[in-house]
Amino acid sequence: KKRVRCITETTSGNLYVGNSAGLWKLNNQKAKLELFAPDKIDCGVSALKWDNEKKILYIGSDKGLFLFQNNKLKFIALDNDVISGTNFITGLVFDKNRNLWITTRKGLCELNPQNKKNKIYTYALLSTNQSFFAKLTCIDSTLYIGTSKTGLIEFNINKKQFSKSVDVGSDIIQDVSSDG
Question: Whole-prediction pTM value?
Answer without folding.
Answer: 0.91
